[in-house]
Every structure is written in C-alpha cells, then in structure tokens.
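Structure (tokenized):
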C-alpha cells in the first residue's frame, strides 16, 4: 500500500511537527516513509507544506500533481493552493479558520476564508471541516491545532494509523508537560 499525504498551512501552525509524527509512526510500523518540507518565510506567516510518502517502492519524497490521497489543510487558502496535488477521489481535512495574509492586511482586504472553503466543497467530493479555533479554545491552548488536525485526519481512515499509535509517538516527541494537552487535542 502506498499513501501520498500533503500537509499545508502557514508558519507557526505546527505542520513540520505533524509531518514528523506521521513519519515516526510509519517507521514504528516498519512502513517505508519519505518526507520533505518546504518552509517559506515561516516566521512571517508564509506558506509551509510537507509532502509525505508511505509504502513500498518510493524513491522520492515529492509526488506529482493529482496523486495525493489526502490534503491536511491548516488554512483554507493554502489548501486551495495545493489542490492540484489531490487525486480524483482524494480527501481533504480542513481547518476552517483563515489566517489573513500580510498582502491582504496591507491592501485592506476582508479575507474570511469562506470563499476558499466553498471552492473546495464545490470541487472535492470528500471535505471534512474542522473548527480549529473552537477546538483549541475548548482544549485550552491555541498551540494544539496540529494535534486536532492530525486526529481528524486519522479518523478519516486515510492514514494507516490509529489515534493510540500516533499518541504513543507524540508522547516520545513532545515535552512531558505538554503530553496531556496534546493527547486531549488528538482525541478531540
């Protein structure tokens, strides 16, 4: 079995850690994995995306357009930007909270993300919407969005892992004082 996963959003949302957890979970199950992150001006809210490939006979972490099984979108516009990579019948797990790009802020634009979400819903059959803001508020920390999104992706049955398997890897990766909070977010 092969799986192509694309994770996208903006700097500071935890995309790189999410990618590392998926890769570590794959290695724990002896699933061959390759990953590559592209980080653009992350400190300034720039685009961040990660390609992950799981399975046999993979020779490069990048994959061509129209081959991603899932896009985990931490930000609506970034998910639209990466949509050409999604295969027909692929899934999107999407955080509904937009992050205003600097260019929109400077131009006085009123970007709400709604138009991006509607575009994705019109063009992709299987879109799971996650209210990341509400989840983080209920959990008690804005820093667990990545775990909320990873948990939602696992529950969509595209990733070959259980929540327990991801949680075991997470416990080995994050600082002990953050394990309980991250576990709560994974299971949200």
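Design, position by position:
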């Amino acid at each position: 079995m092969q799986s192509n996963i694309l994770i996208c959003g903006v700097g500071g949302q935890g995309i790189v850690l999410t990618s590392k957890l998926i890769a570590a979970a794959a290695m724990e199950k002896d699933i061959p994995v390759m990953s590559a992150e592209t980080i653009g001006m992350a400190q300034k809210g720039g685009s961040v995306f990660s390609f992950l490939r799981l399975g046999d006979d993979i020779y490069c972490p990048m994959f061509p357009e129209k081959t991603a099984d899932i896009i985990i979108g931490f930000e609506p516009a970034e998910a639209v930007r990466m949509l050409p990579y999604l295969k027909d019948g692929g899934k999107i797990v999407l955080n509904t909270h937009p992050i205003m790009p600097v260019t929109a802020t400077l131009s006085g634009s009123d970007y709400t993300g709604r138009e991006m979400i509607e575009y994705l819903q019109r063009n992709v059959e299987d879109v799971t919407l996650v209210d990341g803001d509400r989840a983080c508020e209920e959990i008690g920390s804005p820093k667990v969005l990545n775990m909320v999104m990873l948990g939602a992706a696992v529950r969509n049955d595209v990733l070959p892992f259980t929540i327990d398997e991801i949680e075991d890897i997470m416990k080995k990766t994050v600082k002990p004082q953050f394990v309980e909070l991250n576990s709560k977010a994974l299971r949200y």
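Reviewer-requested clarification: The chain is about 40% helix and 25% strand. The first strand starts at residue 3 and ends at 10.
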